[in-house]
Amino acid sequence: MALRVLAPREVCQGCKHYESNGKGLGDYVEKAIGVATLGQAKRVMKKIKPGGCGCAKRKAALNRLGERMTDALKGS
Questions:
Q1: Would you say 61 and 25 are in contact if contact means Cβ atoms under 8 Å apart?
Q2: Which of 42, 46, 47, 63 could lock onto 24 through a cystine, CB 3.0 to 4.6 A?
Q3: Alpha helix (H) ranges present in 11-75?
Q4: Cα(12)–Cα(49) distance, rounded to whole angstroms?
Q5: pLDDT at position 12, please?
Q6: How many CB atoms lie within 10 A of CB 24?
Q7: What is the DSSP code (8-state) at residue 50?
Q8: Taking the CB of residue 63, how many other CB atoms lie within 10 A of it?
Q9: Longest dimension (CA), the chain
Q10: CA dist list (Å): 75 to 34, 61, 66
C-alpha cells in the first residue's frame, strides 16, 4: 500500500510548477531539515548532485501520504 501512496499521480505534484499550501507533512519535514542543517542542505546537495536531489518529489509524496493518513484517521 505504501508504494502506491508514494507513486506519482497523473499530474506530477513534484514538478517545478507544484505549489503546496505549506501545511503538509512534506512541508514540515522540509522545514525541519532546513533548521537541522542551518539551511545548508540544498546548497550542499546542488554541489553533490547538480541534476537535483528530488526534494520536491519527496515533499509532494510526503504531503500526499500525510493527507491519506489524516483521511484514514478521520474515517473518510
A1: no
A2: 63
A3: 25-36, 41-48, 55-74
A4: 21
A5: 53
A6: 19
A7: T
A8: 24
A9: 44
A10: 33, 21, 14
